[in-house]
Automatic annotation (TrEMBL):
Transmembrane stretches, start-end: 6-23, 54-74, 80-98, 126-150, 162-179, 186-206, 226-245, 265-290, 310-333, 363-382, 388-407, 412-431, 443-460
UniProt keywords, alphabetically: Cell membrane, Membrane, Transmembrane, Transmembrane helix
Family named by the database record: Belongs to the peptide transporter carbon starvation (CstA) (TC 2.A.114) family.
Species per Swiss-Prot/TrEMBL record: Dolosicoccus paucivorans
A biological process from GO: cellular response to starvation
CstA N-terminal domain sequence ranges: 5-144, 157-294
Superkingdom classification of source: Bacteria
Protein name as annotated: Carbon starvation protein A
A GO CC term attached to the entry: plasma membrane
Topology versus the membrane: Multi-pass membrane protein
Main location, first listed in the record: membrane
Localization: Cell membrane
Length: 491
């Protein structure tokens, strides 16, 4: 119980103190004109107030990840709390903040464009592939999981296939319509349901006395199947701690932020809130089940089965149903912006303007055709590939942030240290897991270290070369200039 309470308090303190360090290090300019105002187009560039931006950012980044991931992460025991808290404050929230602000300073650019600018043009093509793969997997996973939960709440005539169709239709509309037409209007309602679900589950853990079942802090691995903490835990819990998916979402909000001074609340603050959500559901998983029981529930279905059982046991039929609806809100409000982000990334990559509805539709329909085909792949297989691609994207985003800060002459270790740590873990995961090479763990520890060190050396050489070869007037060094001077071709 005290480990859980202490973790939540540390997350709040992380926002109060560490977010200020990141905010000041970046060098925010409240008087600078943002892309939302300079490039307003009535579709993607639309000024919105900071609270609406915060809520949309939270709902965008908080898919099933901060619920399904922590429930599965609960199998490891209280060590999951350590990763959520430290990962969130020092990696995840830093990742989200820098990606949002670097995108804002680059005309609302998405991760592939930013990787091309700061890591080299060849990187841009690789990142485009990763971003497209990640967003396709996210969108598809976030059709399957809410459809399963909805089918469990409704009559048998409204089965899984019916809800898949309904969710796909909503995703298509939210992908092609202006951001304030659907997303900006219904998200406050979704947000209220989400907050009710999380607060209700959190409070009921205490009032029911189940909170006393949560083990106190230990580094012992409690996973019933003996899955190693390293690298397993860091891929089981991503959203809530560190998630590359967020690098595809922050640029959406970078196009709607009215003032740079709002960035700390919108980007860093939303991630801290997601961390608290993750803590609540991880605690619920530990409080209500012994590890083997929870493991069997997940194996027999998915984490969705555990979510339903937890909500109904803690809150009863009515409250539990509302809580399940709150959980459904999370993947739906991430799936819609996953597809929206994918549309914008593809359009940016091929230089295809998106102001006209027919243009947006011509990019959107092929995306959904591919996603529909992916629906026939087993959910658990999709999830494994998603988790790896997700953390690779986080590594790329943190290296982009590190390069940006180094080129600006700012403190960069707050981005480079988590980037290097996660780089090691994604290599280790690829070497040891079945989706990769399946090598022995002991060999992979050292091999991963050598490969990661080599990539880090190449990165540092790349940034050093950029600093030495670029003219001081290059936009790499001068994004503090007004947008109309940085991008005269747009005006």
């Amino acid at each position: 119980m005290y480990t859980f309470i202490g973790g939540v308090i540390l997350l709040i303190l992380g926002y109060v103190f560490y977010s200020k360090v990141i905010y000041q290090n970046f060098g925010v300019e409240p008087t600078r004109q943002t892309p939302a105002k300079a490039l307003e187009d009535g579709s993607d560039f639309v000024p919105m107030n900071k609270n609406k931006n915060w809520l949309i950012q939270l709902l965008n980044i908080a898919g099933t990840g901060p619920i399904f991931g922590p429930i599965m992460g609960a199998l490891y025991g209280p060590v999951a709390f350590i990763w959520i808290v430290l990962g969130n404050i020092f990696a995840g929230a830093v990742h989200d903040y820098y990606m949002g602000m670097i995108s804002l300073r680059n005309n609302g650019a998405h991760l592939p464009e930013l990787a091309g600018k700061y890591l080299g043009n060849a990187t841009k093509h690789i990142v485009n592939i990763f971003a497209a793969l990640l967003l396709l997997l996210v969108g598809t996973v976030f059709v399957t999981s809410p459809a399963s939960l909805l089918a469990g709440l409704t009559p048998t005539t409204l089965n899984h296939q019916f809800w898949v169709g309904v969710i796909f239709l909503y995703y298509i509309l939210s992908t092609i319509l202006p951001i304030d037409t659907i997303i900006g209007r219904i998200y406050p309602i979704f947000g209220a349901i989400l907050l009710f679900a999380c607060v209700a589950v959190g409070i009921t853990l205490f009032t029911s006395g189940n909170i006393h079942n949560v083990p106190e802090l230990t580094l012992q691995n409690m996973h019933p199947d003996g899955v190693p903490i390293v690298p397993g835990l860091f891929f089981t819990i991503s959203c809530g701690a560190l998630s590359g998916f967020h690098a595809t979402q922050s640029p959406i909000i970078s196009r709607t932020v009215e003032n740079e001074s709002e960035s700390r609340w919108v980007f860093y603050g939303a991630m801290i809130c997601e961390g608290i959500i993750a803590m609540i559901w991880a605690a619920a998983g530990m409080a209500l089940y012994q590890g083997e029981v929870l493991s069997n529930i997940i194996k027999e279905g998915t984490a969705a089965a555990a979510v339903s059982d937890i909500a109904l046991r803690l809150l009863g039929p009515i409250g539990g149903t509302i809580a399940i609806i709150g959980v459904i809100v999370l993947p739906v409000t991430s799936g819609d912006t996953a597809f929206r982000s994918l549309r914008m990334i593809i359009a940016d990559y091929i230089g295809y303007a998106q102001s006209a509805l027919k243009n947006r539709l011509s990019v959107t329909l092929p995306i959904f055709a591919v996603s529909f085909a992916l629906m026939f792949i087993d959910f658990n297989i999709l999830w494994r590939y998603f988790t790896w691609a997700n953390q690779v994207s986080a590594v790329i985003a943190l290296f982009v942030a590190s390069a940006y800060l180094m080129l600006k002459g700012k403190r960069f270790l707050n981005a480079l240290v988590p980037a290097s740590a996660m780089l090691y873990l994604v290599i280790l995961y690829l070497l040891t897991e079945k989706i990769g090479f399946g090598l022995p763990m002991q060999l992979s520890y050292w091999l991963s270290l050598a490969i990661a060190a080599g990539i880090l050396a190449l990165f540092l050489h790349r940034v050093k070369t950029l600093k030495e070869t670029k003219d001081a007037t290059d936009p790499l060094f001068n994004d503090h200039l007004p947008i109309n001077e940085l991008y005269p071709e747009l005006f």
